[in-house]
Amino acid sequence: MIRRHIVVLAATLSGVAFAAVPVRDANGSTEERISRLERMVESRNQVQLGMQQQLSELELEVQNLRGTLELHSHKLEEILARQRDLYQDIDRRLGSGAGAVPAATSPAVPASAASNVSSADVTANVAYENAFKLLKNKKYDDASVAFSKFVADYPTSSYVANAHYWTGQLSYRDGDLANAKTSFASVVSKYPQSSKRAESIFKLGLIAEKEGQAEEAKSYFKRVVAEYPSASVAQMAKAKL
């Protein structure tokens, strides 16, 4: 009889002990699995954020290279234009009998050709190059200030559309969507011949997308494809669509 009570008591104690142990499976307790999943999700989010930042930096690097190419192309065009003016001036002088002009007066020829480029243009070009150097050297805050100042100081420069674009790019990089939108919109509306116009329209689409304006973003992407079908940015716009 006593033995029977001992067996029952032992079975009861065993059941209590068993109930006190948390439920486990082959991979650990449920709490451990949840904690492990949370760590995995957090790690993945950090990796994605890092990749996004790297992509933004790479995009800016590519834009820098394109800007350098455009800057060199612009300089080459100015040199060729000055050469054409020089040759035309020589032709006019020779055609009007200026060939009999004494040699002492010949230095006036290059001077007249050089006068086609005003001192204001030279100053504007230097200011733009200085701002672009800051951008290439990744001094983004200083570059943003320099480009904004360039827009204010040289509103008629041939580089002003590019300055608007770079101001927008730097604002977009910093998450300042309002100023980025203003700068890109200026390129689109004021400079229809700018080489930066297609990319500015695309960036307006990205900004609208970030702001949750899906239909507006879609209209910008469609506009890029319609107006610049052969541009490289059109392929990115198609992917967004």
UniProtKB/TrEMBL annotation:
Residues 1-19 form the signal peptide. Belongs to the CpoB family. It comes from Echinimonas agarilytica. Residues 29-102 form the YbgF trimerisation domain. Residues 121-241 form the Outer membrane lipoprotein BamD-like domain. InterPro entries: BamD-like, CpoB, CpoB_C, TPR-like_helical_dom_sf, TPR_rpt, YbgF_tri. GO terms for biological process: FtsZ-dependent cytokinesis; protein trimerization. Transmembrane segments: none annotated. Mediates coordination of peptidoglycan synthesis and outer membrane constriction during cell division. TPR repeats lie at residues 198-231. Keywords: Cell cycle, Cell division, Periplasm, Signal, TPR repeat. GO terms for cellular component: outer membrane-bounded periplasmic space. The gene is ybgF. PROSITE patterns: TPR. This is Cell division coordinator CpoB. It is found in: Periplasm.
